[in-house]
Design goal:
This protein is an alpha/beta fold and about 900 residues long. It is built from 36 helices and 26 strands. The chain is globular and about 85 Å long. The structure holds a DNA duplex (10 and 16 nucleotides). InterPro entries: 3'-5'_exonuclease_dom, 5-3_exonucl_a-hlix_arch_N, 5-3_exonuclease, 5-3_exonuclease_C_sf, DNA-dir_DNA_pol_A_CS, DNA-dir_DNA_pol_A_palm_dom, DNA/RNA_pol_sf, DNA_polI_exonuclease.
DNA sequence: TTACCCACGC
DNA sequence: GACGTACGTGGGTAAG
């Protein structure tokens, strides 16, 4: 049994907590926010890390030994706010109640205490985790020492291992010192070398290794200016290095073995919590704290490389990775397969597996359960090799996404790291990146892949437990997982494109663009790059003296809404607008689409990202088929090029009418809104009637337009500012509209108020199907952050529930098409719309079942309504 | 390569 | 009143 030592940088964490949380005080008027934040974090650390030994280190007093060498050290720092200072003694009391030792040392900082204690790593049996918000501590990272840094406030930490640092910052732990020496650090008043920032510093360190290395080879430094600066500020650089180096031999009077931790006494703690008014924490200490599993770093891993697949390696429950370099799995090739199960870890070279009947047989058996990362990708790559995988019942990607969609790194090593399993390498570490990317020798490749499958195998249970605790198991198993396979089939099938149609359009556009360019250059009096706002700006606003409406960070804004306001000022403007419009069509939609058509089949295979958006919507890329033009006729014609795959087939498009507003009516349970939908009224007209207090006949076009914008705002969670922009009115007026809207729909108003309260209370909001979005900023003292979080709280349940609904509809429709033995099939999803292709003979049936399935996939307080259309191309399905 | 501007969809 | 304002993907330019 090895020892697990947790070292907490007390000052750093309490500062973080203080600034991350609003200024709470208890009933006696004592400020407690920082202590509260610290305590919640502490509870989590105890759960997650299960330390056998623990210490919280604090800075002592104002001066340190560092001031002797540099008296300006930490100069210019703002004084600690008194609201925070008064919490230090409280925190120490809380630590005592936890029976957690804390320590400080005259003339030394918490860093040095931690640095010194972390050297126990050298005695083999210790594992150390350092917890801080200060990047300087990263220099302590090693094989035995993990440094967890707080991210965004204190609600999240990021665990740095040497490998993770390499991946994220591209430097080794001890180079942090050199990095800081070069960059300096404003907050500690460390000078560094002026003009050298992170980018330059990393570049130098990659070349020369250390600060000393740089100065030993100063002549080899590229760039005259840079060399000069380095030479001039050499002393400062070395002084800085000295200052940022954490002491590993401070004269501390504690020893690691004295820090043994046997847990806390809930009774003692609850007294303390009651006194402080930490109501919500009382529950947490009552229950058991041994729940979360942690895993020891696995140093070595056994891999069996198979030259032949025999069915005796399979057990019926294995983790599978079909490894592929690059993003696009429609065109990529498999490098090899990894399989982990109870018996061991196997690497199968791609050609061995793909020619093996035993492998195919195993893959296609539904009863053989597979744990994978990205079921959709796995399905598609295997389909491309003629294997139809079945029996996938764990998808780490989807599980991770559902647990926290705002986490933007969902690859196996990142997820594993977060769950305490730190022995999976990042792809970049193994393959390199960019032009230098390459496949390593087989043994290395095999081990890398096997570490992934081993992680899948090891973490399935833990992740599913978490989903279960969130009540998201159904969302995961019954919605996202089945959908992944359907999306995979849709992507794999692809959409047929009429290439010559696109090319003809392109040729026409090319001519028109050339003509326009010439005309615009003549009107401008000089040639310039029309696609460069930077060049266009001065022409419009200096040479032609047009009034400046808006500026951007780097110059004049030439965005469409600006140009539209100048439309009558100069004849160049309408031509520019047209040029922009056509240019977009040409570059993005004609050329862009032609670039991604499969030349053998003339089909386009998009990729839907099912684990990306914060709301639960899908996204689509390479190409994005969710933003094909429709608003303007000219652009809409692009859709003529999307045609059915077979002769005698048609395109069939069905879309939900006002799904978000209907969802809102349901969730808010607003009488008026519900009635409007039950009677199937034109919702924007109805809103106009309610907001402007007129009858139907009294609604003018302008009123309806404004009402529509307000509805739009409600659905997308825009601010009064956003609404003012879209309506071209002042913010005040926009706010008035929103207020009037809420007056008219009191149910909506109270729903919105409640949802914000709920978000504040539990830290997240949920959708109909229990999808979550965490909103840590909801309690921010920063008005903007908080406002944004509040709008998000209001908007996400609406948009996210709509996303849930159409996802479920896709699953239902897929099943129904199969049941009815139809050849019709889904091709695309565009948020509230499904596009299918089908034989003409099935048209009648589709007109019956598609709306039926979509409208009744869930039953709400209001009816869902689906419109549909069909034709010989996507364009004609309108 | 990266940052910025712009524009398309929902 | 602050401050920067729905979410995505992708094309282009310009600067490093």
């Amino acid at each position: 049994m090895s020892n697990k030592l947790v070292l907490i940088d007390g000052n750093s964490i309490i500062y973080r907590a203080f600034f991350a949380l609003p200024l709470l005080n208890n009933d006696k008027g004592v400020y407690t926010n920082a202590v509260y934040g610290f305590t919640t974090m502490l509870l989590r650390i105890l759960e997650e890390e299960q330390p056998t030994h623990i210490l919280v280190a604090f800075d002592a007093g104002k001066t340190t030994f560092r001031h002797e060498t540099y008296k300006e050290y930490k100069g210019g720092r703002q004084k600690t706010p008194p609201e925070l200072s008064e919490q230090f003694p409280l925190l120490k009391e809380v630590l005592d109640a936890f029976s957690i030792p804390h320590y400080q040392l005259e003339q030394y900082e918490a860093d040095d205490i931690i640095g010194t204690l972390s050297t126990v790593e050298k005695e083999d049996d210790w594992n150390v985790t350092v917890i801080s918000g200060d990047k300087d501590l990263l220099q302590l990272t090693s094989d035995q020492v993990t440094v967890s840094l707080t991210k965004k406030g204190i609600s999240e930490v990021e665990r740095y291992t040497p490998a993770f640092m390499k991946e994220k910052m591209d430097i080794a732990p001890d180079q942090i010192i050199d990095l800081k020496a070069l960059m300096g650090d404003k907050s500690d008043n460390i000078p560094g070398v002026p003009g050298v920032g992170e980018k330059t510093a990393v570049k130098l360190l990659k070349q020369f290794g250390t600060l000393e290395g740089i100065y030993d080879h100063i002549e080899e430094v590229s760039g005259k200016k840079l060399k000069e600066k380095l030479t001039t500020y050499k002393d400062e650089a070395f002084l800085s290095k000295d200052l940022v180096t954490i002491k590993r031999d401070s004269p501390i009077t504690v020893e690691p073995k004295e820090l043994a931790y046997g847990g806390y006494d809930p009774n003692q703690l609850s007294g303390m919590f009651k006194e402080l008014g930490f109501q919500s924490l009382l529950d947490r200490i009552g229950g058991d704290t041994t729940a979360e599993g942690t895993s020891e770093p696995m140093k070595e891993i056994d891999v069996t490389i198979l030259r032949e697949v025999t069915d005796d390696i399979f057990t019926g429950k294995e983790a599978l990775v079909a490894e592929m370099l690059g993003e696009n799995y429609h065109t990529g090739t498999i490098e090899g397969f990894g399989i982990s199960n109870e018996k061991g870890n196997y690497f199968i070279p791609a050609e061995v597996a793909l020619q093996s009947a035993a492998f195919q047989e195993w893959a296609e058996q539904y009863d053989n359960k597979k744990m994978v990362f990205d079921a959709k990708k796995t399905l598609v790559v295997l389909l491309n090799h003629g294997i139809h995988i079945k029996g996938i019942d764990f998808d780490m990607l989807l599980a991770s996404y559902l647990l926290n969609p705002s986490e933007n790194n969902h690859d196996i090593p990142a997820i594993s790291n977060r769950l305490g399993k730190t022995d999976v390498l990042y792809d970049e570490e193994v393959y390199g990146k960019g032009a230098k990317q390459k496949v390593p020798e087989e043994q290395v490749l095999a081990e890398h892949i096997i570490r992934k499958t081993a992680a899948l195998y090891a973490l399935e249970e833990q992740m599913e437990e978490k989903l279960k605790a969130n009540e998201q198991l159904e969302l995961y198993k019954e919605l996202e997982m089945p959908l992944a396979l359907i999306l995979g089939e849709m992507e794999h099938l692809g959409v047929l494109v009429d290439i010559s149609n696109l090319e003809e359009m392109g040729n026409g556009l090319k001519q028109r663009l050339q003509d326009l360019e010439k005309e615009i250059h003549e009107l401008a009096g000089e040639p310039f790059n029309l696609n460069s706002p930077k060049q266009l700006g001065p022409i419009l606003f200096e040479k032609l003296n047009l009034p400046v409406i808006k500026k951007t960070k780097t110059g004049y804004s030439t965005a469409a809404d600006v140009l539209e306001q100048l439309e009558n000022e100069h004849e160049i403007i309408p031509k520019l607008l047209l040029y922009r419009q056509l240019g977009k069509l040409q570059s993005t939609y004609i050329e862009g689409l032609l670039k991604v058509v499969d030349p053998h089949t003339n089909k386009i295979h998009t990729r839907f990202n099912q684990a990306l958006t914060q709301t639960g919507r899908l996204s689509s890329m390479e190409p994005n088929l969710q933003n094909i033009p429709i608003r303007l006729e000219e652009g809409r014609k692009i859709r003529q090029a999307f045609v059915p795959a077979k002769k005698g087939w048609i395109m069939f498009a069905a879309d939900y009418s006002q799904i978000e507003l209907r969802v809102l009516a349901h969730m808010a349970n607003d009488d008026k809104l519900i009635r409007a939908f039950q009677e199937d009224l034109d919702i924007h007209t109805q809103t106009a009637m309610d907001v402007f207090h007129v009858d139907k006949e009294g609604v003018t076009d302008s009123m309806r337009r404004q009402a529509k914008a307000v509805n739009f705002g409600i659905v997308y969670g825009i601010s009064d500012y956003g609404l003012s922009q879209s309506l071209g009115i002042t913010r005040k007026e926009a706010k008035k509209f929103i207020d009037r809207y809420f007056e008219s729909y009191p149910g909506v108003k109270s729903y919105m108020d409640e949802i914000i309260q709920e978000a504040k209370h539990q830290g997240y909001v949920t959708t109909l199907m229990k999808r979550r979005r965490y909103l840590p900023d909801i309690t921010s003292r920063n008005f903007n952050k908080r406002s944004f979080a509040e709008r998000t709280a209001m908007n996400t349940p609406i948009q996210g529930s709509a996303a849930d609904i159409i996802k479920k509809a896709m699953i239902d429709l897929y099943g129904r098409l199969e049941e009815e033995n139809l050849n019709a099939r889904m091709l695309l999803q565009v948020h509230d719309e499904l596009i299918l292709e089908a034989p003409k003979e099935e048209l009648e049936k589709l007109m019956e079942i598609v709306p039926e399935v979509m409208e009744h996939t869930v039953e709400l307080h209001i009816p869902l309504k689906v419109d549909y259309a069909y034709g010989d191309s996507w364009f004609d399905a309108k």
